[in-house]
Amino acid sequence: MSIVTISRGSFSSGEALAQCLAGKLGYRCVDRDVIVERAAARGVSQDELRDALARPPTFLERFQHKKYVYLALIQAALAEEVRTGKAVYHGHAGHLLLKAGRYLLRVRIIAPLELRVRKAQERLKFSRGEALAYIEKVDQDRRKWTHYLYGVDWGDPALYDAVLNLENMEIAEALSSLL
User: Fold this and answer.
1) Which end of the chain is more exposed for a tag (fewer CB within 10 A), N or C?
2) Do strands 104-110 and 3-8 pair parallel, antiparallel, or not at all (unpaired)?
3) Which H or E run contains 138?
């Protein structure tokens, strides 16, 4: 494998797994911020690019091309960033933005909602209710975004080569199952 994409819901430990996997393989770990920065070099606001990735198009935006231009810039930036291989990308829809192929391993991480809520509470200093609402909103937006743009269900296991459930597995165990 030359490129690994890691898809996950918010606070599902995908970033930690990506960093560990990249370190173990001697690959670069690439995240959404790296891609947004590269795409913004073409004269677009980083905030607008992040928004294009985070929010599904509104009804009115479906008739405007601006958001699609931003997504094309993001896709081009990701392709440029991983063109030499040896990269682990964790960010939104890497498995869909890159064309599936022999040198791409598409990994999905799932984790119990309660674990995710605890992590959101710790990192964002949210109450349990705020953390739950935040996670549900982000996941709903990602689901809508991928369905609208690609016509697929973000959680469909058929979109991935490996699905790892972190309910009873630590990062080290998940890492060893990928190696």
Assistant:
1) C
2) parallel
3) helix 128-150
Q: Look-up: residue for tokens 């959101």?
A: 120
Return d(Cα 9, Cα 22) in angstroms, integer. Answer: 20
Q: Which domain holds residue 98?
A: 3-178
Structure tokens at 58: 């509104």
DSSP letter at 1 equals: -
The answer to whether the CB of 142 falls within 8 A of the CB of 40 is no
Cα–Cα distance between 39 and 74 in angstroms, integer? 6
Q: For 54-79, what is each residue's pLDDT tens digit?
A: 777 777 766 667 777 888 888 899 98
pLDDT given at position 63: 66
Residue type at 137 in one-letter notation: K
* pLDDT (tens digit per residue) in 126-161: 999 999 999 999 999 888 888 887 889 988 999 999
Q: What is the CATH number of the domain that holds 37?
A: 3.40.50.300
